[in-house]
Design a protein that fits this description.
Six copies of one chain form a homohexamer. Helix content of chain A is 39%, strand content 11%. Chain A is an alpha/beta fold. The first copy, chain A, is globular. At the A-B interface, helix 1 and helix 3 of A face helix 1 and helix 3 of B.
């Protein structure tokens, strides 16, 4: 059940028998040929499937994240990190205030990762709030499936090219991985290095592989929702 | 066209011929019997219709706003006002940085209104950024249609009960308007005063009236999108 | 009694028998031909009269508010909204810490209104702090008196032209109301639209009307000071 | 001329021939038997006299400052230091934006001193803004006059007991200086140590001495207003 | 050369021929049996060696970082993430203001990593500032050396047990890696899970291995200092 | 004992019998011919000697402070005052959280003084935290020794020229004290006024005088560490 499909009475009734909730942290940023909302769409799809399978409530998705390095690609909307830390904290405090005690955070974007550290400060303050963090693309299962198919995992490549994130014709060729070094690049340097915004490898993969990844992650999410 | 349905190349192409964009400011808060996302859904529906009719790009909706007074109703997620001011500012700076110069902000929630004042500070800094503010429920046209049908406009009553915001059986009776006074009430006082969260009047109105309101607002939005 | 006319022993003695206090939120901004401190002077005069009549303590006036849109008129001093929210919160926390529990806030300036929303967050934290908000120019009684005399209410027009806010010769003519649209204008646009800074209507009205308004508001303030 | 006695046209005319302005930083805090606004009243009186003698414009007084150590004395209103830094910065930015380039800051309260350091950051950003800081009670001339009359200078003692700051009967005796050590005391410790809030010495002095101090400081202020 | 061994004239002279500088980001936190300053000491030692070999200036070490999860271990000093972001930004702005354009940041602590994302915002603002980030323990060379010796890399285990970080007798046994799951643990949970604060594996390794790691990292740092 | 020479078990054992700790607040800023870290080195040396003599624990030194006025001297690293207030607060909260209740703050830099006022806010919140503030160069004993030797006390002159802060040849002559007035100078004005960065008087004094000062301050620190 999604927040948008219910009212406060629905949540109040739910909280009498359950205190779990899922929260999707997305982003609106360049993803090469893929949708600007790719990083929101993937965890949202997973969360909706997990909600249906488990009955766990799903909070509304946060469509904005931190992508300062992509600001030279039009369509990227990036929050300052300071803003983002406060924002996610506020959402979690509201959920806690309502009575939720077990939150599975489904993060879809690498640039959002610093908030995980900030939430430790919240955990110190609210020791009875259980928070789990799930970033699907960092999972061993994803790497494993990729390697089985001789594919590499990179931003905006096949790995994120689900049928619901593809919004245009996809290139057929494979792109070499650009060299970035260990510089802290600003937006213009990044666009110069990455060109179309894809970070290398194949642009698209067999739908069966995508399904395999989706199903693998969904299974892991359902496992985590047990909060054991 | 919505951001989520395109990629950065799509936005770059668009910006070569147009610099308008719409931004929906919503909220996730109690709306009596209606969806917790009512304040996001209504301006989003209007914006999607306006985008289709005009071709103006639509940024992703912000699903969270400021509703500290409703925090005793489970399902309400409220950002601190400080956080919210920064958040909306960041979104607008990103849009400006990409090249957008005319932004129509479609606000769906009264508690978000303070950010309008904050955006004047941004306007001082970026004098070539045109920002318009449209809050559908405050429009004379809405009051006029309501009065023609002997209806009053209140939070979470018939006025917001569109087919896409109704998520449960709606009460048939009419509710008297609770007395609130001019106190700055905290969350518990508010719940005590407003009970089911609806602020008085009828819970639902004839679908034809809803359509009339929707169409009236849509026409006004399309007019404003001309930025004349 | 005003804070400035007493010492801490005076306040301590007062708090043993009463816990009410008034706080004036003013502004220093262009008011056309009127005093730059118009928005502080009017609520201050009302508060002083109310204090005399009721014996309720009056805190020192806050002479600064939020007027970013008027910064192209010299003499306007405007605080960032972030600063203002913290400032008013700090004042209220100090009053609360001293033992005051009933605060009547007399706001004199529209640009300060966002802090009302911020104070809900404070109300959530301090549920035994009663705060009331009174903005004299928004009161039905003011509109009613105006309409009885065929006058319209606008920034810096006759409505605010009390003998204690007039600092120069006043124009005799009537000014048409400039068209502003629903743009979020920056300071330069505002000055271009509003010229002398008055928003339309008559510059001055009969002193008897001014007295009527003053007395009407004073009566309402005294009523509110009962905190019933 | 004071801001409150003029309108924006008055300031605009003034700025065509002068770019000097005075700003009073006060406080609302316990001053023993003296007015809670003592620290605003003294620099304000001095500034008004200086304005009359020199024609330099006087901005509205800031009635609130930083006095966390006095919060156990009712009537003290203290801003967090963070808030205060932003507040004074905002005022100065507005003055600068209007065209003022020479600001004489008349500080009346020791607890406000940290903002002086913060203003160096502003000076780095706005190198053509000249700011001078005058804290009357720290002046050698005041110490000298005191010593000539065998008086010591302490918070809320005779030194601040002007006819316009006295609000009650004053004790006749002399108070020994309490021992405070170099601890960073909180509010309760401070009240325990200082009792009636006066820091030692005589409660009142001969009016002629007070006049001598007032005149001496006024002369220094007028000298500083030359900005040579 | 270290900042502490020179004066401003020394830096001014240096800047005429070079614009490189190293900055050590450390932490003061529990490291099991090792020094509380382990995360500052290791990058500092590396930086001092690199400075000697290359002549590149070394700024003073920042001894404090973000370790909210270790606050139940006495001796841990942790900054809020918000504070830390501002702090590192301020240091870099000062270095930039002085004329440095190539900064190699030597981070010694995983909890500091979020600031790397924040620095992208700085890079957007100062495009001619080159910043590189080096976190020695994340380097492939370290993993490789470890694997060659059948050792695993964990917080506070042998990997950080250099002669200059060891402050007490070290346990001889090997510790199993505790299970943490993907929870965002607060400080008490962390202490319960990790006991003595070491994260598993051997407590100490052969000094030759330590030297091999030190030398490998030093070589990489010297390579990076070329800023090619 | 210094934090860096022990581990968390060492601190835990210490806290069972003692709750005192020293904290050094330094700065990295121009000191004329002296080390850029002069303001950290002097209190650190004193603290280390005091720790040895008394057994009181010594936290790691904070090498950065607030010196916005010296930013035109390369090598100066200055934190914004806002940042610094938070930073020192965070350190003290961590120490308090660990169980320390008596903190002697050894400040080495005048520009850090505003944080003393901020710590009063912390003292209000944590009334059982005793904090003492010691700024060696402001002590009567230092003035007295100086006067006995006909020396004046100024930034970066002989007074701070200890053998451990001298990093280059020292001028032999005496420098007249530059006139600064009571302006709030920005960085460029300051460099213009102070030239080599020394504020006047002799550049160096007899080592015996330096030892006398060091010993005098050390004795005072040891006295304060009794927290009587």
């Amino acid at each position: 059940m999604r927040f948008e499909d219910t009212n406060w009475m629905g949540v109040e009734a739910y909280l009498k028998k359950d205190d779990r909730v899922m929260l999707v942290l997305g982003a609106c940023e360049q993803h090469g040929y893929l949708s600007l909302l790719t990083d929101a769409k993937i965890p949202k799809k997973l969360a909706e499937a997990a909600s249906e399978a488990s009955g766990v409530l799903l909070a509304p998705p946060l469509n904005f994240g931190c992508s300062p390095y992509f600001l030279s690609y039009p369509g990227t909307i990036s929050l300052r990190l300071h803003t983002y830390l406060d924002l996610v904290e506020d959402i979690l405090r509201s959920l806690y205030g309502a009575g939720f005690r077990k939150v599975l955070i489904l993060n879809g974007h690498g640039g959002n990762t610093p908030v995980r550290d900030h939430l430790v400060e919240l955990a110190n303050e609210l020791p009875d709030l259980m928070m789990r963090w799930y970033a699907w693309w960092t999972r061993p299962i994803v790497t494993q499936i990729s390697q089985e198919h001789d594919l590499i995992n990179q931003h905006a490549n096949w790995e994120e090219a689900f049928d619901f994130t593809i919004v245009s014709e996809m290139p057929k060729e494979t792109k070499p991985v650009p060299k970035s070094g260990d510089y802290i690049h600003g937006k213009d340097a990044i666009r110069k290095i990455y060109g179309d915004g894809m970070y290398g490898g194949a642009y698209q993969a067999d739908p069966a592989i995508m399904q395999e990844i989706f199903d693998g992650c969904l299974a892991e999410i359902l496992e985590r929702l047990k909060f054991e």
